[in-house]
């Protein structure tokens, strides 16, 4: 100023709460940095804090939907119309003798306010400390707002904000792929375990079969088809061939059944083995359907991946890797790709 007196700084702070926006004025100082010791000393005591900070205006959100829209705008660093109205109405103009600054918690929002309203903004430092005090004493600073009702507003908004965020996520196609891959993984383990059980169980009756047919799914289908090995005859050959697609193996099964070392088996045991084999076969068939579904999904979501590393490998890409595959610099992704390629 003319008399050598420095221009004072009038700092306001913006506090976003679930119940609404609060604009508070901080006592005038020559430099914002000078506030720090006073704020640190008074931040925990409401009486002392009230000497430094005064509420200028409070803009309550009119509905839960309004609160959600505003908080989404804040989180994305966008100046919402409600906030614009509050600031345009209540921020004092800057003059020769004083500089007006608005303290904002979020740097992106501060930039948006400065750009659209021309208000000088500051984030961090003493502003963060003052906002800590406001958060602590908020229900005392706002007339008619009790601590329980403030907490209720926060909880309600927290739920709707999270729900909205999750909803955005639900639209992602790769969630279905990730779930299918987990299921496919689980099915492989289960089919393997159950097939071993069938092989042990039926192996008492026809131990030679495992030497001729090692593949789980085919073994279970044969156990179901053959039943009592003593009833196998030349007429059974076409049916055996249909399952194993090999006439020499079909003949070998018939020959082995005639000279088998296996124990005799009662009809009730056979019914149980057949019933269990049935379950394993239907699980294996469902697994095949799931893999086809997964293949078509992968071709929709990541056709290049399927072309690049082959359908089987791309379908084998496990949970989470699909997301990482879409982001650059995934060393884990490269490693996992190598693991899959080695295992195929």
Molecular structure report:
Helix content is 64%, strand content 10%. It has helices at residues 35-42, 46-52, 64-75, 81-90, 107-117, 126-141, 147-170, 174-203, 209-212, 216-226, 237-244, 247-258, 267-301, 303-309, 311-316, 321-325, 331-343, and strands at 8-17, 20-26, 53-60, 98-103, 120-122. The chain is an alpha/beta fold. It has a 5-stranded mixed sheet with strand order 3-2-1-4-5, sandwiched between helices.
Describe the secondary structure blueprint for this structure:
Layout: E1 8-17, E2 20-26, H1 35-42, H2 46-52, E3 53-60, H3 64-75, H4 81-90, E4 98-103, H5 107-117, E5 120-122, H6 126-141, H7 147-170, H8 174-203, H9 209-212, H10 216-226, H11 237-244, H12 247-258, H13 267-301, H14 303-309, H15 311-316, H16 321-325, H17 331-343
Parallel strand pairs: 1-4, 4-5
Antiparallel strand pairs: 1-2, 2-3
Tag the structure with descriptive keywords.
344 residues; 17 helices; single chain; alpha/beta; 5 strands
Low-pLDDT segments? 326-330
What is the strand tally? 5
Note the overall shape: rod-shaped
Helix percentage range = 55-70%
End-to-end span in angstroms?
Answer: 79 Å
**Range of strand content:** 5-15%
**Largest β-sheet summary:** 5 strands, mixed
As a whole number of angstroms, the C-alpha radius of gyration is 36 Å
**Class per helix and strand makeup:** alpha/beta
Short structural summary:
The chain is built from 17 helices and 5 strands. It is an alpha/beta fold and about 350 residues long.
């Amino acid at each position: 100023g003319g008399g050598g007196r420095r221009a004072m700084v009038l700092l306001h702070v913006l506090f976003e709460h679930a119940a609404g926006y609060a604009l508070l004025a901080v006592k005038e100082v020559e430099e914002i940095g000078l506030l720090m010791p006073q704020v640190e000393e008074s931040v925990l005591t409401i009486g002392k804090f009230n000497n430094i900070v005064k509420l200028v205006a409070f803009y309550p959100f009119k509905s839960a939907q309004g609160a959600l829209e505003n908080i989404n705008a804040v989180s994305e660093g966008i100046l919402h119309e409600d906030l614009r109205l509050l600031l345009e109405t209540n921020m004092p103009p800057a003059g020769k003798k004083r500089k007006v600054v608005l303290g904002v918690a979020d740097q992106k929002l501060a930039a948006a306010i400065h750009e659209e309203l021309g208000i000088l903004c500051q984030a961090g430092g003493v502003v963060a400390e003052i906002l800590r005090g406001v958060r602590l004493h908020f229900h005392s600073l706002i007339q008619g707002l009790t601590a329980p009702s403030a907490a209720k507003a926060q909880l309600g908004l927290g739920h709707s904000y999270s729900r909205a965020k999750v909803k955005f996520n639900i639209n992602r196609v790769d969630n279905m792929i990730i779930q299918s891959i987990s299921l496919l993984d689980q099915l492989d383990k289960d089919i393997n375990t159950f097939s071993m059980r069938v092989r042990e169980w039926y192996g008492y009756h026809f131990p030679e079969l495992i030497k001729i047919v090692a593949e789980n799914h085919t073994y279970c289908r044969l156990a179901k088809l053959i039943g009592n090995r003593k009833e196998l005859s030349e007429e059974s050959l076409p049916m055996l061939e249909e399952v194993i697609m090999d006439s020499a193996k079909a003949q070998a099964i018939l020959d082995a059944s005639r000279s088998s070392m296996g124990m005799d088996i009662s009809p009730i045991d056979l019914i149980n083995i057949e019933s269990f084999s049935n379950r394993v076969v239907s699980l294996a068939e469902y697994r095949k359907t799931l893999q086809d579904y997964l293949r078509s999904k992968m071709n929709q979501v990541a056709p290049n991946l399927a072309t690049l590393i082959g359908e089987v490998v791309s379908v084998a890409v496990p949970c989470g890797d699909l997301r990482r595959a879409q982001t650059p610099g995934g060393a884990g992704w490269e490693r996992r790709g190598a693991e899959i390629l080695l295992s195929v």
